[in-house]
Design goal:
This protein has 225 residues and is α/β, with parallel strands linked by helices. The protein has eight helices and nine strands. The longest helix is centred in the C-terminal third of the chain and has 19 residues. It binds adenine.
């Protein structure tokens, strides 16, 4: 999988891909992440990128020409399965979208910024608009990092224990059950007996029941779906 991210703030995206699973995925050659600085497509000597909104109102809007130039450059180099725009007015991201997107080969992500990007860019290029939740971030960069992380960990071979992505919360529509490690007793608190029983059937049944109970209490909306 290759992910190209177009941003005004490349520095914001250095950290998330420099460590842990995202770093390892790149080191193993399973994933490529390329960050593109929109500023280098800016207009004129000052590399101008934004302007006032037609019709007035607070906040600046990204002009279409620099964004189109960057997208066109990338599209001339390869075919993209998806061109995603991160914005609070996009469709709310969830595990089923992550699963679907993790099967794609080339993904481009345009990070929203300021008041947003000129609507004509969205109309012309964007195949999917994604929000990572009902709150407003300062820009789409952190959303792009969240999105990319959720996809990268699903790419076959990225996680050492293949089954671990399948037992994540949401993969079966439920939250994950509680987990415990040693010591078996800590500050008077015991690890549930069944987990120490060595009986795989009983352990699985306990985990299933805990997952359902946790989901019922914390996220009943998931059970309705
Ligand atoms: N940009 C600003 N807020 C956002 C959000 N909640 N999701 C995606 N992109 C955003």
């Amino acid at each position: 999988m290759r992910i190209d991210i177009i941003t005004l703030l490349p520095k914001l995206l250095e950290g998330p891909f420099a460590a842990s699973i995202c770093r390892r995925a790149q080191d193993k050659g399973l994933v490529e992440v390329h960050i593109h600085d929109l500023r280098s497509y800016g207009l004129g000597d000052s590399r101008h990128l934004d302007d006032y909104a037609f019709g007035g109102g607070a906040g600046m809007v990204l002009r279409p020409e620099p964004v189109a130039a960057c997208i066109d450059q990338l599209r001339s180099e390869r075919t993209y399965d998806e061109v995603i725009y991160t914005s609070p007015d996009g469709r709310r991201f969830d595990q089923s979208q992550a699963n679907e997107l993790s099967l794609k080969r080339n993904i481009m992500i345009l990070c929203g910024h300021y008041k947003g990007v000129d609507q004509r860019i969205r109309d012309r290029f964007i195949t999917r608009e994604i929000s990572i939740g009902d709150y407003v971030l300062s820009g789409g960069e952190l959303a792009a990092a969240v999105l990319s992380d959720a996809l990268i960990r699903l790419v076959p071979g990225v996680l050492n224990d293949e089954s671990s992505a399948l037992t994540d919360s949401f993969q079966d529509g439920l939250l994950a059950p509680p987990v415990y490690t040693r010591p078996a007793e800590w500050e008077g608190m015991q690890v549930p007996e069944v987990l120490r029983s060595g009986d795989p059937k009983a352990i699985e049944a306990w985990r299933d029941q805990q997952a359902i109970e946790r989901t019922r209490v914390r996220r009943p909306d998931l059970l309705d779906q």
